[in-house]
Amino acid sequence: MKTYSPRILLMMVALIFAILVSVLIFIYTPSDINQLTAIIVGFVISFVTSLLMLFFVNIFFIRKINDLLVTVKQYREQSDKPSTTLLYNGNEIDNLNLEIVAWAEDRKEEIERLKKLEVYRKEFLGNVSHELKTPIFNIQGYVLTLLDGGLEDPSINRNYLIRAEKSVDRMITIIEDLEAISQLETGELQLEIERFDLAALMKDVIDAQEMKATEKGIMLTMPEEIKPLYVVGDRFRIRQVIVNLIVNSVKYGKEYGETKIRFYDAGETVLIEIADNGIGIAKKHLPRLFERFYRVDKGRSREQGGTGLGLAIVKHIIEAHNQTIEVMSTEGVGTVFSFMLKKG
Please, what is the angle between helix 310-320 and helix 157-186, to 10°? Predict the structure, then answer.
């Protein structure tokens, strides 16, 4: 439905009023008076008078509308993700309507985002509780057994203490990982940027993980006789990323499978790919794969000893380097993780 600006409406109302006055003059003017002159004079006077009156009333209302427009606009622009700049026209009412509709849409999106954050918060607290509860109950069980007489039994006392220590180590790992994520998110963790040889770092990680891979018959391969490949970044954190991705490829890889590390020249950056021919990941899990404590197979992940925080840390480290990490996977075929680093 077309809307008219207050100024056009003002003219229309004044014109209608003047026409009504002219009709009344025509009807009630005595015959001995020049009716045409009376109608013209009456029309002009009534039109000008009504126009002036409505003009001052219009100024008052337009001022109020503009004040309301400014207020709505300010509230809208204070939202986290305000709508793009709106295209105003000469109609104050239309402009106000645009702002109100945009504000309502922004509020709707913000409410939906808050609902998702609330669900995420509940999931996160539940996951933290569950992850910490398991080692705590294990420690409690071992300690109670030792207190109930097991401490004097040489066949179990040392074994139970070792198990309790492993549970303590698991709790420490979870807490340290959570702290690392928090520091990366808030920017408290400062990266130590340096120039280093990525190929040498990758070979060092492969050598360190080769024994675990050999236990499952998995081959870790990278291009042979690769030349030094210098990049810029935090060497320790990038090593952490590579270790996490290779360890995952071994954990969830097929027996006698293969994990390939590949490098690609991408102009000012180097593309790093870590690909395996393991069990793969279902498509529905990929969007949430880098969330804290998210597990594709919860039972199997815990059996493997993971905290569920590794990929979340990987994501934050890569983002701290102003890059992104991508994942492609097909069930039964394998998974490919890829990220870029600036050349050094």
Answer: 30
CA distance 179 to 81: 28
Q: Which residues pair with 254 in a beta bridge?
A: none
Residue-by-residue DSSP string for 25-50? HHHHS-TTS-HHHHHHHHHHHHHHHH
Q: Which residues contact 67 (CB under 8 A, 6 or more apart)?
A: none
- Strand, coil or helix: what is 158? helix
Tell me which DSSP letter residue 261 carries: E
Query: Which residues are bridge partners to 266 per DSSP?
Result: 269
Tally of residues, the chain? 344
Q: Minimal CA–CA distance to 306: which of 315, 317, 294, 316?
A: 294
Q: What is the pLDDT of residues 67-126, one digit of tens each?
A: 666 776 766 666 656 666 666 666 666 676 777 777 777 777 777 777 777 776 777 677
Beta bridge partners of residue 198, listed in sequence order = none
Instruction: Count other Cβ atoms within 10 Å, centred on residue 231.
Output: 23
CA 233 to chain CA centroid, nearest Å: 24
More confident residue, 80 or 290: 290
pLDDT tens, position by position, 24-81: 766 766 665 566 776 677 777 776 776 666 666 666 666 766 666 677 676 666 665 6
**Of the ranges 83-97, 153-167, 287-301, which one carries the lowest mean pLDDT score?**
83-97
Phi, psi of 217, deg, nearest 5: 70, 20
